[in-house]
Fold this protein.
Amino acid sequence: MSGSTNAFEMAQAQFDHVADQLGLDEQVREILRWPAREFIIRIPVRMDDGKIKVFQGFRVQHNDARGPNKGGIRFHPAETVDTVRALAMWMTWKCAVADIPLGGGKGGIIVDPATLSNGEKERLVRAYIRILVRNVGPRQDVPAPDVGTTAQMMGWMMDEYSRLVGQYTPGAITGKPLGGGGSQGRTEATGYGVIYCVREAMKHLGIDPKTTTAAVQGFGNVAQYASIGFIEQLGGKVICVSCWDRNDKTAYTFTKAEGIDPRFLKGITDQYGTIDKEKAKAAGYAIEDGGAWISKKVDVLIPAALEGQINGDTVKLINSAVKIIAEGANGPTTPEADVVINQRGIFLIPDFLCNSGGVTCSYFESVQNDQNFYWTKDEVLVKLDHTMTQAFDSVLGMSLDKKVVMRDAAYMVAIAKVVKAMELRGWI
Ligand code: GLU
């Protein structure tokens, strides 16, 4: 398998590997190996100093056979079209595995959000929507939050879209704030969804969750609620989380052997995911190197930061005690590292199954928007658990039936659904 950490090459390598096993038709592969549409845009924004700055942005639509393209928009200084392509492709598989009637898309802007004022952020996301207004929308492509973007930004984008089309159109964007067209449970959904999958994996492996420990990479939205869920829902212990420190431009791991308190840490984390080191130290946390999380002696590793984190080098550091890897992030494991993980018999819950709780809740949000009738948090979380447990079961069933690892099984489930929709629509 390729040793590449280019996310799009990774996504294609994973797809090719399963397409070979399935003996998938060459022409069908040609359709699915590449996004259907790609927009590379330049976005002029009036900055607070009065000058115009031009940002580069992307929106990639991979496949809409099963429904409108769906996927987040990232703000990241190292964003590339290839990363967005990979993420769009993974969204197609994610929606198919979760069995929600949506396709795959993703957006990105090359920018460090911490360098923008609130006004600049608002002007940037509104301009993004103005440029793409004919190519996004509730029946075409529905953006949502991802790394570096927030519910408030979604609210601005929805407003801009609604003004441009002359109608209140909340379903054009999901992940909106509560009271502004958002859904209960959307903030927690991705992290809690990771934990529903971990719970099902432990059931399958015969592990008592109350005796288990976890190490988490990242402390953004997904990592925060995965940590909270691991402790509050499973009764396990999280011994560390890591975060990117935007002041020091480096990553740190925050460790407490007796168990971290994610709600406390969340309270001392800024809006960009940087934990206050002084306050953490005063509360008894050891502050270690950013890479320290991966070598911890724990039962579960939860990479919930960025892509390519478990690679040919770092995979060697995984402790022999680790039984489950739950991919909260998109694409955290390279194909080269996958080979080692599979050889070692670690049960890996692949990204587009494991983190599908976010988009599933986004789907619920758009359904509520269409009905103009909103559900309680309990209703949302019960539906989310049900959808994710079913998705997990279908992938586990495929894995046992075909004697393949969970990632390949997830691809098999997803590809079959997308190919079927393409057939039914007469595309192939
Ligand atoms: N950005 C999230 C993801 O990667 C959520 C996408 C959505 O809600 O559309 O799954």
Summary: Residues 7-182 form a domain with the Rossmann fold fold (CATH 3.40.50.10860).
